[in-house]
Amino acid sequence: MNRFLASGLLAASLAVAAPVAAQDTIRFAVTDIDGLEALQREMGPFKEAFEAASGLKVEFFPVSGRTVAVEAMAADQVDFVLTGPAEYVVFNARLDAQPVVTFSRPDYYSTVVVLDDSPVKAPADLRGAKISFGEIGSTSQHLGPVDLLAKAGLTYAVDYEPVFLKRNVAMEALISGEIAAIGLNRTHIEQLTEKFPDQKLRVVVKGEQLPDDILLASPKVSPEVIETVRKTFAEQGEALLAAVTSTEENAKYIGGSFNATVTDADYDVVRKMYENIGIKEFTEFVGQ
Question: For residue range 186-206, what is the model confidence (pLDDT) as tens digits?
Fold first, then answer.
C-alpha cells in the first residue's frame, strides 16, 4: 500500500512539475531576420552563449516580419522576440508584452539629409517639398525623421509630401530633383555615400540617440524565467555581446551593451513619434 501511495504521489508531483520543466526551453524570434537558416546563421553564436550562461535551452522560431511575430506570440507559439522600438510599442499595446533587456546600438539616430549643393539650409526650407522616408513604420527611417521635422514646426503630410522609396531609388530621385530630402539613420548615410561616391550628402537636422532594440517577453512567460533571462544579460553581458557581434549581420551592436533595467516608460518617446503621423492607438503596425 505504501509503495502504491508513494508511486501515486510521485506521479502527481511530476504532473505538477511538467509546466515548469517546459519553461526550461524558451522560443525565440527576431522580427528582422527572415527564415530559420538566416536566424541560425546570424544568431547561432548568441544561442550557444546564452544557453551556456543561463541554463535555458533556446528554440528558434523563424518569422517573416513583425506581423507574423506578433501573431505567433498571440497564438502562444513564441516566448521572446527581439525587435525594434516602434514594433515594441505595438507588441505591448496588443499583447501586454513586457520589456526584458535592450540591445543598444551606438550612434543610432535619425537624420534628414539633402545633397550638399541643395539650397535647403534648415528644416523650414522643406515646406511644400517632397521628402522620402525609408521603410514605413521604421523608428529610424520614418518615425524619427518625421519627429525631427515636427519639432521644427512641419506637420506630417500637410507641410510636406511624404513618399516611401527604397534607399538607392530615393538617392537617385534626390539627384534628379524629384525629391528634396531623405529621412535616414546614420548607417544608411554611410551606405549611400559608398554607393554614390560622386555625391555628397549634407545633414539638415540630426536627432538624439533613439530608443534601443529590445528583447520582449510574452505575458505568458513565467516571472521566474524572465528574471533568469534578465540576470543572464546583466551578469554575462560581455560574453553575450561578443557572441552576438561575431556575425557580420549584427555589426550594428558592436560597441553597444545590454540594459536589463529597461521599463515600458522608456518607449513613451516612440509613442509620441506615432502621434506625429496621426496614430493614437498603437495596436497595428503602420502600413499593414
Answer: 989 999 999 999 999 999 999
